[in-house]
Amino acid sequence: MAGKSNKAKNKGRAFKSNLADSWESESKPLDSSPSLNGGARAVVASNGDANGVGDTSSKSPAANGVISDKVEMENLSATTSKQAEGEIHLYPVSVKTQSGEKLELQLSPGDSVMDIRQFLLDAPETCFFTCYDLILHTKDGSVHHLEDYNEISEVADITAGGCTLEMVAALYDERSIRSHVRRARELLSLSTPHVSLSTLLALQHKTAPQKVSDVKTKTPDGLGFMEDFMGSLHNLVTPIPHEIKCVESIVFSSFNSPPTYRKLVGDLIYIDVVTLEGNKFCITGTTKAFYVNSSTGSILDPRPLKPAYEASTLIGLLQKISSKFKKGFREILDQKASAHPFETVQSLLPPNSWLGHYPIPDHKRDAARAEDAFALSYGSELIGMQRDWNEELQSCREFPHNTSQERILHGRALYKVTCDFVDAAIKGAIGVINRCIPPINPTDPECFHMYVHNNIFFSFAVDADLGQISKDQGSSSKLNSWHFVDNCNDAASPDLLAKASDNTSDASAETQISDNEQATYASANNDLKGTKAYQEADVPGLYNLAMAIIDYRGYRVVAQSIIPGILQGDKSDSLLYGSVDNGKKICWDESFHSKVVEVAKRLHLKEHAVLDGSGNVVKIAAPVECKGIIGSDNRHYVLDLMRVTPRDANCTGPAHRFCVLRPELVASFCEAEAAQSSHSRPKIAGEATETPNSQNCSSHVMETPVEAQTKASEDCASAPSEAQTPGKDILLNPNVFTEFKLAGSQEDIAADETIVRKAASYLIDVVLPKFVQDLCSLDVSPLDGQSLTDALHAHGVNVRYLGRITDMIKHLPYLWDICSGEITVRSAKHILKDILRESQDHDLRPAIAHFFNCFVGNVSHVGTKGSTNNTQSKIRKKGQESHQSPLKSGKGQMRWSHGASSTKGHSAHLLWTSEGLWSYIQEFARFKYQFELPDDARIQVKKVAVIRNLCQKVGITIAARKFDLDSSAPFQTSDILNLQPVVKHSVPVCSEARNLMEAGKARLAEGLLNEAYILFSEAFSLLQQITGPMHPDVANCCRYLAMVLYHAGDMEGAIVQQHKELIINERCLGLDHPDTAHSYGNMALFYHGLNQTELALQHMSRTLLLLSLSSGPDHPDVAATFINVAMMYQDIGNMNIALRYLQEALKKNERLLGPEHTQTAVCYHALAIAFNCMGAYKLSIQHEKKTYDILVKKLGEEDSRTKDSENWIKTFKLREQQASAQKQKGQVVNTASALKAIDILKAFQAVAGGSGNASASSVNKSLNAAIIGEALPRGRSVDERAARAAAEIRKKAEARGLLVRQNGVPVQALPPLSQLLDIINTGAAASEAQPNAQANEPNGEASNSSTLNATSVGTKDTNGSAENNEDRAPVGLGTSLGSLDAKKQKSKPQATA
Questions:
Q1: What is the DSSP letter of 763?
Q2: For residue 1214, how far is the Cα from the chain centroid?
Q3: Where is the stretch described as Disordered (predicted)?
């Protein structure tokens, strides 16, 4: 939707506004969903400024606020002023409001009337009008009454100009007046929008300006801070903003509902209001207006009060009766107007926060909140009929999507409906688990209960083995819903239970239980992945259900939309394809088969023949157990897609029946095989071709900040379609290595098995070593368990291989810590979920606190020794005895059905001890991951990181206070604040926008800034219109736009875009997500580029806090950040602190990566530059020689980075000779700084000897890489291409005789080295650093380039990516050491002259 208000230049909370609900329910929910999204459509600035994107972003669904001037003023540099192609043309249309005010909207002929309503909903002047008609007056005098679902172009031509809109009050009805009151309440309750911490930092800096010189003394050095980040946890919680109060209370009066005789004269509702002045009013809402009636006591007096107060809106009436309300409401509007537009947008699927406010804020009375709580209906619509989710979803999929505008409408509708479904599914699942919703089959065992609520089907994910135990109790009443239940597990129906028992009858008890906890998880996860794969294949005529998996209180609930007609009567004839009885009878249908074959081609699956139970040959192209069903709407639905990829041949046996290969791996393998066969290369070619593919995936992972662990797989799940051309002949049979009988010749079957085995071998022999190599070279640098998981998935590696990978990286302790920590948390998660399931409602807080104390404290047994030991031994055997504890083995076994949850008066959780828990964790890790946790794992584990990880995986919120993690019981019951659902979903992604971003990155790599900017702008605009601004993909766009602007020299524009990325990451990923940390780092570098060093250092401090929280202080990214911080201090002349940071970074890199790692060379180079600045040339030469030695050993003498280092050595020697010559001539040479450098170095070496281990525990390479401008390889979206791109840009600029500086001023190519040295030598020692920086560019590249080159050592690509380091692309946290030198060289020549 391309509109904006000139007075209120922002669009609002398109998705969440309750007013929108009022429109929505007036018609079919499906129709409303696209329009509700209207607010999310980007407004491309019509004034043609280059700001197209910057401005656009601001005009996205921001809620009820005005875009601040600063956003309006964003200007991009001339190099990027070209507007995006396909820009929406906007035309001014003035609007006369109900109150008589006039404002102007910029509209597109394609906007719908719903879009206009959304614009008006977000403009401060009209945000409280909800019930009105829109009249369009055209130039020729004709008048048109606009219907909500009309497009403007269908009614009149606004391109001719002269059109005006008029808002005319409409009559309220019972529904619309309630929506109006809810909207009024919402406006008042939203008086405290989310404020980004970066915004707060900037505001504080603005209100208390400081001279740069003060920074030297005022800014803390921060080195000790890394060891005590526990004390900073409170900084990770958004501060509670000041609330603007307008009214004491607005509640529905107990006079409701109006008596019949008053209804006949138009009374609809009565509202009791208490104003801030203390006056109490009873307000009557009628079909025409609101007025204050004369009621005072307990008897209704409907007559208007004297003097009469009346208004067409509730807000308008309150402004008349209360001056304090009028003043407060104006403050609210002003506050929203001054906020960044993105800070007022509601996030559709916000992340869970694992930290809550401490001390706990007071819980205050709120009548409106109480009313809403009692009206809560667990996900159903509060007003009006329930939504038919399936019909909405399938209708949206059927929207035409041939033209660009159609694709936007299609994507927007689909995204909105899916997000709404997930939201409703979460509420419904909580209702199911809390027993607020009755089952539809109450006579069955509780673990098999199924629920239908709000047109969503809910079932517990039940273990196949538990099903086997209970199968005799199963009732045939489940038959009607077999597909739903089976969709989430393999054993929810009697037929399948029988099959499960056939499968496992000959397996040992040990093998059977192996799956108890896992099978249900695996089947539900795999089903969700399969559903996504089919959705993305998007074959016309083939439909999937909406699906979400909700983990809450230890239960896993699968929510799905309902196939029409499936719950009514016997639908056994609706099965057209696949099997419901595990292959005994396999159905087949020609039309269904042809569609499935289409999907199979895109997923690299083979059409093949299988035998049913009667020996009949059936040709299928999907797993046998999938089910193709025709609904009563005559649509073809495909379900139970748990094996859309073949089984993993490395994991055999019934225990591993859900172990399948990832779609990313299948795509990578087929591509590698196709390349190998087409080029007739030896096996190595397979590896070579795999590399780019995994990089692609990894870069996707990184570019796509992780949300609920799904993004990476989504990105790469689409890889098959992209890779299908080269790998089209490589097809895998999904039914090999299963219990199903394959038809065809033995040769064919053997060939099918061989290729699946080959794919599994490819995973072990090529992908895993390549992944480990990327980890070692820092091309992939995960910061925490989640980013590690995403990197694994992006490379096509299942998490079950984590133990093997951990054993392969033992030589890198920081990686071993991250990997083993993830194994520990995943193992502990299962016992915590068991405890949650077994705990009664009143025991949840104590149970969680006790578990955490066992996990990170030291809890010895409670109660009698015998019972404790007995319980612990049972727990330890959990993975070995299949029927030891039915309570633990079944996810669906409801906790309240067992009285045995306590022993001798003790709650079950109290029987756990630290020793018993860690014994279980070690056994589980051994069984599930084939990994031996060391005996001292309890002591070695990084406690904060594992607590954070575990809270995020289970949905726990703890108080943000300083915990004493060395005590035996660090957690108290009061520290547990909340238990939230953890969700996995199938929300669609916008592949078109991602393709535009990929193209933009390619242009950036070629140095084509204009084209890159246009592509990123288009992607940004597209995403804004489809998803709204609160989406990780939008954050990616903002990051790349910031990078383009940075290279174009527009530092202010880069900061604007970076600020947007930061806000989105904080809102969509979390305040402490690794991507958020990198956003703060980038922001710091941009601020530093504007010489706002104090603000930059505050952002860097935040970066260090977030990094230390995610990974602990021992990580290469921390070291890299240290180098960035050092460069900032160096730039403001505080060499003492700068050297301390550089020495600390060096110690970290030497300890974490080894003394001969290229990142260690980077540290030596940075120190050489610093000593050069201080005039200590001998130390510069000494450190640069170490750099050179490492590079020679790692890269060879011919590498460009090695040659750069050699040139630096020559430069330093030349400087030293000139300094000696000056001294001999009797010229005064200031040696104080050189002596000081030597003293500092000695002091550091002395300290390092004693406390090396203590402080040496913090490093971070991503930054480090970035610092030096190197390709950012981190587990988050490693912007390798971005960095490479930046390098290329710089290279091409230099080729044209220009050097694009970070300050944005292109300068002529530097004069020859000799001239520079002459100039430099005339300067004082204090200014020597700058010229030297120039002198360092022996090969004509900016000093940063050489620094970067030296730094780039860590890059994987030695041939092409040497240059990518040259660009201090802020991809991660990346500004290079040299960039700072380059800055100095810019500012000092004048001084020297």
A1: I
A2: 51
A3: 1-68, 865-901, 1328-1393
Q: Phi then psi for 693, rounded to 5 degrees?
A: -65, -45
Cα–Cα distance, 60 to 38 (Å, whole number): 9
Cα 1181 to chain centroid distance, Å, stands at 45
The pLDDT tens digits for 252-266 are 999 988 999 999 999
Q: Which of 306, 313, 274, 277 is nearest to 292 (CA)?
A: 306
DSSP secondary structure letter of residue 568:
S
Start-end of H helices in 1090-1175:
1093-1111, 1116-1131, 1135-1153, 1158-1173
* Cα 97 to Cα 183, 188, 336, distances in angstroms: 18, 21, 20
**What is the per-residue pLDDT for 573?**
66
With 0-12 / 13-18 / 19 or more C-beta atoms within 10 angstroms meaning exposed / middle / buried, residue 385 is exposed
- How many Å apart are CA 832 and CA 819, to the nearest integer? 20
- Cα dihedral 348, 407, 72, 130 in deg (nearest 10): -60
Length of the chain: 1393
Shortest CA distance to 1347 belongs to which of 1330, 1321, 1368? 1368
3-state SS, residue 41:
coil
Residue 281 phi/psi, 5-degree rounding, is: -130, 145
Cα angle 912, 914, 920; round to 5: 75
What pTM was computed for the model? 0.77
Contacts of 1146 (CB under 8 A, 6+ apart): 1119, 1160, 1163, 1164, 1167
CB 298 within 8 A of CB 292: no
pLDDT interval class at 1113 (50, 70, 90): confident
At 1077, the amino acid letter reads: A
CB 538 within 8 A of CB 411: no
Please say whether the beta carbons of 180 and 172 come within 8 A.
yes
- Both tokens of 945, joined, read 């990181």
Contact between residue 316 and residue 99 where contact means Cβ atoms under 8 Å apart: yes
What lies within 8 Å, CB to CB, of 394 at 6+ separation is 543, 633, 635
Closest CA to 13 of 79, 63, 66, 47: 63
Which of the 8 DSSP states describes residue 229?
Answer: G
The conformation of residue 630, written as its DSSP 8-state character, comes to: E
User: Nearest 5 degrees, angle CA 1367-CA 1369-CA 1371?
Assistant: 150
Question: Helix count (H) and strand count (E) of the chain?
Answer: 54, 30
> Which one-letter amino acid corresponds to residue 135?
I
Instruction: Please give the structure tokens belonging to residue 1009.
Output: 């800034």
pLDDT value at residue 862: 59
**CB burial readout 693-721, b (16+ within 10 A) else e:** bbbbbbbbbbbbbbbbbbbbbbbbbbbbb
pLDDT level of residue 974 (50, 70, 90 thresholds):
very high
